Amino acid sequence: MIEAIFSYEFLQNAFAAGLIIGVIAPLLGVFIVVRRLSLIADALSHVTLAGIAGSLYLSQSVASLALLNPLFLGIAASVGGSMLIERLRSLYKHYQELAIPIILSAGIGFGAIFISLAEGFSSDLFGYLFGSVSAVSREDLFIVMGVAIVVLVFVFIFFKELFVLSFDDEYARASGLPAKWIHFMFMIVTALVIAGSMRIVGILLVSSLMTIPVATAMRVTKSFKQTIFLSIAFGEISVITGLVSAFYLDLAPGGTIVVTSIFLLLLVLAYKKIMVSRKKGAIA
Amino acid sequence: MVAPLIDIQDISFEYEETKALDHISMKVEEGDFLAILGPNGSGKSTLLKIMLGLIKPSKGKIELFGVDSKSFKNREWIGYVSQKSNSFNSGFPATVKEVVAGGLVKKTGLFHRMPKKTYEQVVEALEAVSMEAFIDRSISELSGGQQQRIFIARALIAKPKVLILDEPTVGIDHENVQAFYDMLARLNQDKNITMVLVTHDVDTVTDRITHVACLNQTIHFHGYKEQLHTMSDEKREAWYGHSVRKIHHIGGSHT
Ligand SMILES: Nc1ncnc2c1ncn2[C@@H]1O[C@H](COP(=O)(O)OP(=O)(O)OP(=O)(O)O)[C@@H](O)[C@H]1O
Ligand SMILES: [Mg+2]
């Protein structure tokens, strides 16, 4: 495998992008999970699909756009979708979750139309839906790196604010934090991560890389910082194991990555159960 | 003359259809220990939220430390403990230490990391609420009353000049309620922290407070607690309705 990485550029791209995503997706995922926004990640990934399908269709029908990287329109759609979700959430104050099915189905709807309009898309489509080891280009890798820099800078600068805001929204506003702005930026950064992770994990499984490692970490951690570090660790283990097995077994990496993370979750749940029953045994 | 810390000038507020506050004016001076009393739904929490800038009044204006609240920047001077911290996200993976340190968020500005002495400040704030033994515990594993004390420590850590508390003792057991109000009285007297407290524990707070405000959409009384007995029976009836007997004896009046 190591040799293969040195000799094939596509493998280098896939691994480098995978390692980066393994950090940023769970990092942002921790905030998404504790703020109960997990499903929003799902909605945004479907909007990204619409953007990518639209871009592929445009590149076929408009000659000057033939070389446009579909990720750009995917990112644009995702960011636009995140703003629409916020708009809908403030319109339906008491039914905030309504924004999710609306945006999610809009994403699939537009995606389906563009997919059927574009010709010969079906082979690429599989890669976009479930990820691909071979399709990550250098340009894709650079886009992922750009996204990662934005995410890391954002989280580094606003860590305390994001923490307080996620923990207790009212208290954060009473302390004078510009809660609206931070939330708005958070949504945009989330949209970026989703669009950036999509090449490796695939649209249908992006949100799981943001949530499953976090769900796993939360079972065993007490502190917020621990939760972040452990989530990233579980994320990386899933990405590396998933990519290696995808390469050797010729499977879609989205599938192998997510199945690995589910496996880790089950392991941790079992470990937790054993520890608890041992403690109970010790007391009795 | 020193400007009042909180100066509410003719404020009204309504939620969509419900009128909550009707032409309220009130000043809180430095060193006051003010208890805001009133029946359920009388607008107490709403008034506190307006003081905190969480909601904007539809009429009137409010000055904080002599500055119009719209341009007031030093929010860290005002500590807040909300009613039964229902806004807090239960099940959150954070330790008591992290939650309390969160109270410094406005003090340590953007880009600044938490200072080294944060740990000592957290311990000090926890000692004030007798919770220092819980510093490394997970917040979601504490009882409601213990959590409430942690939120008070979070408000104290930024060393506020005013502490605004909305029914802070809900969920705290009887003995600890006494200890809790003693603690507030100490902070008020020793550290000169001005207190604005919404409560239904009228009997318990009487000895500790200096001022009383009787609120029910409008202010029916505001002044030194000793003067409360000058409030006429009609006014009491208008303020609290039939359950008025319970609070009759504040300020040394008849029962
Ligand atoms: N978010 C809201 N939306 C609509 N109406 C509200 C809202 N919050 C409060 N109200 C209404 O405003 C009025 C004042 O409510 P407020 O919460 O200020 O009362 P309170 O004095 O704090 O009561 P309690 O003692 O029960 O805490 C009530 O009639 C209430 O029904
Ligand atoms: Mg209230």
How is the secondary structure organized here?
The complex is a heterodimer of chains A (284) and B (255).
Chain A: H1 2-7, H2 9-34, H3 38-61, H4 70-91, H5 99-117, H6 122-130, H7 138-167, H8 169-174, H9 179-201, H10 206-220, H11 224-249, H12 253-283
Helix pairs in contact in A: 2-7, 2-9, 2-10, 2-11, 3-4, 3-5, 3-9, 3-10, 4-9, 6-9, 7-9, 10-11, 10-12, 11-12
Chain B: E1 6-15, E2 18-28, E3 33-37, H1 44-52, E4 59-64, E5 67-68, E6 78-81, H2 96-101, H3 118-128, H4 144-157, E7 162-166, H5 174-190, E8 194-198, H6 202-205, E9 211-216, E10 218-224, H7 233-240
Parallel strand pairs in B: 3-8, 3-9, 6-7, 7-8
Antiparallel strand pairs in B: 1-2, 1-4, 4-5, 9-10
The structure holds adenosine-5'-triphosphate and magnesium ion.
What would a concise description of this structure say?
Chain A has 284 residues and is an all-alpha fold. Chain A is 83% helix and 0% strand. By secondary structure, chain B is an alpha/beta fold.
Explain what this protein looks like in three dimensions.
The complex is a heterodimer of chains A (284) and B (255). Chain A is mainly α and 284 residues long. Chain A has helices spanning 2-7, 9-34, 38-61, 70-91, 99-117, 122-130, 138-167, 169-174, 179-201, 206-220, 224-249, 253-283. The radius of gyration of chain A is 20 Å and the shape is globular. Chain B has helices at 44-52, 96-101, 118-128, 144-157, 174-190, 202-205, 233-240, and strands at 6-15, 18-28, 33-37, 59-64, 67-68, 78-81, 162-166, 194-198, 211-216, 218-224. In chain B, strand 9 and strand 10 form a beta hairpin. In chain B, helix 3 packs across helix 4 (144-157). Chain B is globular, with a radius of gyration of 18 Å. Chain A binds chain B through residues 34-36, 157-158, 160-161, 163-164, 166-177, 217-218, 221-227, and chain B through 52-54, 73, 75-76, 78, 80, 82, 85, 87-89, 92-95, 97-99, 102-106, 108, 110-111, 114, 136-138, 151, 154. Magnesium ion (MG) binds next to helix 1 of chain B.
